[in-house]
Design brief:
With about 140 residues, this protein is of the alpha+beta class. The protein has one domain: hypothetical protein PF0899 fold (2-Layer Sandwich), CATH 3.30.2320.80. It has 3 helices and 6 strands. The strands form 2 sheets. The chain has a 3-stranded mixed sheet. A 3-stranded antiparallel sheet has the order 4-3-5, with no helix packed on it. Strand 3 and strand 4 form a beta hairpin. Bound molecules: zinc ion.
């Protein structure tokens, strides 16, 4: 299951951060999610609760930060940011009802568009208390 391996990767990154920064307690994990990342939020949260416990990192909250779509033209290099439509962008099996991705560069009209980072799914930050913070309470 795709979400299960994501939950493991997130927990691993989180545990490394805990060790590297001496965090006593992780409160939030900030995730950067591209507009074409195929991630089922509910499934991931559910699995993450279990996996996080196995990794001994408590029960941090997952915060999903959805990124806008970036389009770059391979012909003229023009770049723009496109706000996702309410129904999301269309991906064959992920969201068949969504709006189609833009097909043309709005600067030169070429159809050679690429979407850098559109499928990204990254841990952007781990927030928590250090041992010092906790001692100060
Ligand atoms: Zn162009």
């Amino acid at each position: 299951m795709h979400e299960y391996s994501l939950a493991c990767s997130i927990s691993e990154i989180c545990r490394d951060t805990v060790n590297a920064h001496g965090l006593a307690n992780v409160e939030r994990i900030i995730l950067a999610v591209g507009p074409l990342a195929v991630v089922h939020e509910e499934t991931l949260c559910f699995l993450f609760d279990e996996v996080a416990e196995e990794y001994g990192i408590g029960r941090p909250e997952l915060v999903f930060v959805y990124q806008p779509l970036r389009a770059r033209c391979r012909c003229c290099g023009f770049e723009e940011t496109i706000e996702p439509p309410e129904s999301g962008f269309r991906e064959i099996w992920h969201n068949p009802e969504g709006a189609p991705l833009p097909a043309q560069c709005s600067s030169c009209g070429a159809t050679e568009l690429e979407f850098p980072g559109a499928s990204r799914f990254d841990v952007e930050g781990v927030e928590g208390e250090t041992a010092d913070d906790a001692a100060g309470d």
